[in-house]
Amino acid sequence: MSNKERPQRVLVTAGASGLGLEIARAFVRAGDAVAVCDVDEVALEAVRARGDASHALACDVADREGCTRMVAQAAHALGGLDVLVNNAGIAGPTGALEDIDAIEWDRTLAVNLTGVFNVTRAAIPWLKRQSSGAIVNIGSVAGRLGFPLRAPYSASKWALVGLTKTLAVELGPWHVRVNAVLPGAVDGERVRRVIEGKAASRGIAPDDVLREMLAGMSIKRLVPPSQVAAMVAFLASPGNDTVSGQVISIDSDTQMMA
Q: If you placed Cys at 59, which of 70, 113, 121, 194 could pair as Cys (CB 3.0 to 4.6 Å)?
């Protein structure tokens, strides 16, 4: 049975809240079977209570062995795996590079980059087994522009673009497509925390940081999470089986990051 004749089996990392939850819900609305993983047990319990996903699993993507167990558990529960959405990521520290704690640098890359490695490496055998599927990596506009005072985050997201391009070539022979979506400032709690952190680091008001952020965009608005989710669903659709190796920005045409 082809993917077009049945619901897709989808795993979304950090899918219990925020953008990840919006992505998971988009697949659920399309009739797909969705598993989410997250480190936030409270958010996972809320997902279970609301029925936002078929399965809600606890996992820290920086935990390599935990990722291997989680992917196997999700794939067994779903009856296989068609789509992996690597959404898990943290904002990391804010400050000049010379002032950043090395432990915070390591943790940012452990989640944002090595975490993608951990989950994807465990998922690839499931995708190769059926010789089809899609991986969508959630990057950031900080993966194509410099991001002052956010070096660990930006470095991790630039690296994710290279990983996406390389995996697209490696997995093409198995008809597994790999793409990345680079959101800009997505409206929600996370961007508010980033704004507050930059404001505190620079000694200015959060509203001033937001104004500077919007000044670098052609379209002066934060990105609705629903638009990112819609693009992820598009890239994961089996009907788009020649779309691979693409890096697509959804960022209000951001030209400069404050």
A: 70
